[in-house]
């Protein structure tokens, strides 16, 4: 196997020498050039496994080199060397397609990890593993032949080749955690942990301890050291789901941890280095929360380097038959039965349904129908779709319902409309409906709305 090679583009001979020695000790053959012109020339003549470029060069900007490499040599990972604390330049480089960045003065341990991931990425390209291919092909919410889903899968492939923070946007039930897992599985961190945390599910008083860890005796109940989710994900990916639910004081601490790549446990005296890729998600509109002062603009800027929008199921209804059959086949296999067929009438009814809960709701509907099914084929009447969420025609013909059912239908419809208008922000929806959040939660449970 040939020795990996790296290109260093920097006009400071001392930096070039330091990087060359570090890479040589890692078994990587390094070549240094001092400007963009020389970089373009050597790239056209020689193949490299990694490029490290300074931001400021005598004849131009390192960002231009990043764009050139992405267009001309898309399989070559390029990392940017930025001035210390200049996060704007680092984010600009990541948006332009840089694999990662390292700040001056160069921390050699950070550099080594970056280089290892970049080299591993090159090997992944030439030696794809069957496990990773299977994970991509069989992950149900990413199934679909519609144009939106083809774009999503293509973007996931590109995002897996970067270390840039990713922000996954989309309604509840569209598969945000699955998308994050696929980015992790297809990238150079796949051999390290993928840690998912729902920020809205952690009590505020425990949030700092859960994320950053704590030392024994740092607070009542801290009977032993706890490393926290950041350190649990070290070397891998930390998925922060429902990041919009983070209180403002934790947003400050999270921003610092991401920028400094260090965490301090509660009760700890020292910062601890941590190497994680951050992927975040929420069904809320973060930009609106920033405008309203509920989410820090600097944190939003830092986590939203690249956005991956996931389409709602109603915008790709042609994928419903494929998804539905996938779920039914899986359920039949798990239960050891032969109930694995969907009738054309059932598929037609599913395609006409609005699916406010998206893929998660589709799976829940099919699971309930499958459990109650007596025959071998699932028919339209077996689906028991909520009446008020069917098509307008279906609603208009349901005028013979009992009064109590009609009132519940109207109430359910009003709740879902308020949720959709507030992008499924329960607090805002409750306010819009003139009820307490507790009352809304009760009704959501009563009507089976997720």
Integer-rounded radius of gyration: 26 Å
Tell me the structural class. alpha/beta
Number of distinct beta strands: 16
Q: End-to-end span in angstroms?
A: 53 Å
Number of helices: 20
Strand order of the largest sheet: 2-1-3-6-7
Helix content: 40-55%
Mean pLDDT over the residues: 86
Assess the beta-strand content as a share of residues: 5-15%
> What's the shape?
globular
Q: In terms of topology, how is this protein built?
A:
Elements: E1 5-9, H1 13-25, E2 29-33, H2 36-45, E3 50-54, E4 56-57, E5 60-61, H3 62-72, E6 78-82, H4 87-96, E7 100-103, H5 108-126, H6 130-138, H7 147-160, E8 166-169, H8 176-185, E9 194-198, H9 207-212, H10 228-232, E10 237-241, H11 248-260, E11 262-263, E12 272-273, E13 277-282, H12 286-291, H13 297-303, E14 306-309, H14 320-335, E15 341-342, H15 344-352, H16 358-372, E16 377-378, H17 392-396, H18 403-421, H19 426-433, H20 437-447
Parallel strand pairs: 1-2, 1-3, 3-6, 6-7, 8-13, 8-14, 9-10, 10-13, 15-16
Antiparallel strand pairs: 4-5, 11-12
Helix pairs in contact: 7-8, 14-16, 18-19, 19-20
